[in-house]
Backbone:
């Protein structure tokens, strides 16, 4: 792995990690705390939550397309460098 | 009386259907442990999604959850959403995908096996299995107790508790012993689809009877305006976050869930499951938990020790429908218990029983010399080994040991459920927090090559001791700094201990960090 591709890899990993934290943090509408507005028969905060989880689903879908493997596959072990020891797992469908 | 007959008929019908599925699965199961416990790692998207889902939350969806929202307001939907829809999904990737890769390559069946191999330590493997069984056993006992009580309630006491709980236990033993993971997962799939259908039918029926969601919510606003405002009462920031974190991490270490990380057929299955997860959580929990909250507004009264969902259905829908939902929930209880039984048995036989006899196998021919103590140990091992041989012939030793494990586990937990001593009940009730204490040391081990055996001992042992103390010792508080639960504090303690002690110690001979460095290539 070249230094440049390593840097890109790290950048992507950081980006996805931030996205995950945002997804967790935003799933509860903290700004609506103690709010009891009802829209179409359900509390507004519940609509936010439902919408957010749908957004999460799409984000996960995007992640499986563009980010899958980041941080988990070889080289992700902190403290070792990916080398010839790395084992490959065949995952043919 | 006819209603009782219908309810028993529905439970009976479910059992027959499950038995039929088990039989088909048995015909497809060969006699290796990997096939019995993991269905040879061949699960597709729908089966993996629903078996994990049904295993995870079945009885809670119909009973426990709606009872909570009935009593405290619908915010538990948020706890479930964050916990199950998002944090668990992220862990599904970070922990689950990693475990799947490592498991595919090295053929692991249990969590203890995976850790024991990496750290070259049988005691660590045994420790993880023992801790898991410590929390799992009372939890299974509570399920059996619940099922027994449900039968008593269903028949108005005509069937005594021990017959109900015993009958269900016997059915589960036969079923799990025969069909293994494949049969368990197939019934879970049927179960999950059924639950989803039933819960939407229930909400539609009740809402059409009371004039739609707007009318139901308006009634709730009159009687419990507090319920519609986000937060308040039980729901503090600290409570919501602590509960979501603790349960999400705890769930990943529950043996029956953790073992499902090993069973996907391909990466594609894991990916699809990940993307579908939050949607499924919304589809199941929003209607089920809102039903509980609406029941409070509609003035539904719940009998003591009863559940709110059957109560509201009794009032607004037909008797047979209530029966179907109650029977479905009971069947759901069985479906999560049988998964736990199977996984518990695999921990018992593979991580505790087998290492003991294998050890003896290796030393079998060694001449007896050395100290008297060593001679006694050698003799004890020889006894263990002959017991192992007595239990099973060479050919299907593994399969028989596995099934024996199921029978032993289920029988002992059934006997315990007859007495249900207070201590065991308390352990079962706090099991999620107990499992959560395992999660961070395991995560550290999977990703940080510097982790040492002693770091693992310290992290796992320290967190467990702290959490147990907070549950059982009155002088150790259960919440900290204005409402953070002991479970979350224990998790952080475990993390600090694992990292700190690892930094202070060196890798022992036999440890091999490269075991967890695996890469994935997807063949499309």
Residues:
């Amino acid at each position: 792995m070249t230094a440049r591709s390593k840097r890109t890899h790290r950048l992507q990993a950081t980006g996805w990690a931030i996205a995950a934290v945002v997804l967790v943090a935003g799933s509860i509408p903290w700004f609506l705390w103690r709010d009891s507005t009802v829209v179409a028969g359900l509390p507004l905060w519940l609509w936010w939550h439902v919408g957010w989880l749908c957004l999460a689903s799409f984000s996960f879908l995007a992640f499986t397309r563009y980010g899958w493997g980041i941080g988990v596959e070889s080289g992700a072990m902190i403290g070792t460098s990916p080398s010839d020891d790395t084992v490959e797992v065949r995952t043919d469908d | 009386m006819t209603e009782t007959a219908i309810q028993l008929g529905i439970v009976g019908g479910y059992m027959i259907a499950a038995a039929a599925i088990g039989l088909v699965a048995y015909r497809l199961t060969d006699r290796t442990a990997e096939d019995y416990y993991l269905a040879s790692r061949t699960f597709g998207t729908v089966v993996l999604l629903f078996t994990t889902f049904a295993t995870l939350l079945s009885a809670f969806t119909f009973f426990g959850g709606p009872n909570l929202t009935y009593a405290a307001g619908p915010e538990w939907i948020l706890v479930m959403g964050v916990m199950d829809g998002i944090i668990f999904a992220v862990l599904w990737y970070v922990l689950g995908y990693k475990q799947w890769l490592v498991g595919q390559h090295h053929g692991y069946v249990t969590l203890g096996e995976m850790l024991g191999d990496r750290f070259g330590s049988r005691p660590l493997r045994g420790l993880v299995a023992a801790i898991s069984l410590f929390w799992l056993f009372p939890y299974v006992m509570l399920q059996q107790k619940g099922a027994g009580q449900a039968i008593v309630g269903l028949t108005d006491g005509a069937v005594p508790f021990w017959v109900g709980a015993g009958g269900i236990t016997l059915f589960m033993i036969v079923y799990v012993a025969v069909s293994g993971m494949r049969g368990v997962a197939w019934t879970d799939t049927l179960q999950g689809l059924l639950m989803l259908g039933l819960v939407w039918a229930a909400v539609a029926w009740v809402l059409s009877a009371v004039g739609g969601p707007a009318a139901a919510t308006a009634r709730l606003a009159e009687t419990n305006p507090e319920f519609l405002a986000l937060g308040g009462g039980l729901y503090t920031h600290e409570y919501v976050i602590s509960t979501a974190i603790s349960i999400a991490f705890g769930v990943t270490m529950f043996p029956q869930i953790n073992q499902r990380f090993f069973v996907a057929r391909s990466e594609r299955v894991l990916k699809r499951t990940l993307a579908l997860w939050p949607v499924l959580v919304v589809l199941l929990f929003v209607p089920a938990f809102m039903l509980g909250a609406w029941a409070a507004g509609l003035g539904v009264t719940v009998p003591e020790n009863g559940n709110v969902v059957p109560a509201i259905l009794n009032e607004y829908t037909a008797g047979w429908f209530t029966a179907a939902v109650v029977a479905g929930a009971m069947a759901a209880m069985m479906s999560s218990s049988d998964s736990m039984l199977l996984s518990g048995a695999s921990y018992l036989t593979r991580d505790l029983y087998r290492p003991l006899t294998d050890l003896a196998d290796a030393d079998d021919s060694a001449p007896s010399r050395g100290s008297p103590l060593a001679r006694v140990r050698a003799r004890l091992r020889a006894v263990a080994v002959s017991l192992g041989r007595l239990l099973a012939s060479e050919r299907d030793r593994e399969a028989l040991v596995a099934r024996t494990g199921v029978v032993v586990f289920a029988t002992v937990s059934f006997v315990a459920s007859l007495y249900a001593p207070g201590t065991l009940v308390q352990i079962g009730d706090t099991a999620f927090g107990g499992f959560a204490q395992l999660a961070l040391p395991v995560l550290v081990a999977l990703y940080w090559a510097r982790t040492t055996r002693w770091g693992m001992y310290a992290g796992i042992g320290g967190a467990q001791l702290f959490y147990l103390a907070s549950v059982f010792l009155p002088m150790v508080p259960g919440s900290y700094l204005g409402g953070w639960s002991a479970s979350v504090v224990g998790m952080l303690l475990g993390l600090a201990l694992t990292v700190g002690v690892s930094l202070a110690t060196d890798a022992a001979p036999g440890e091999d960090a490269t075991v967890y460095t695996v890469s994935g290539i997807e063949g499309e």
Remarks:
- Strands of chain B lie at 479-480, 484-485, 518-521.
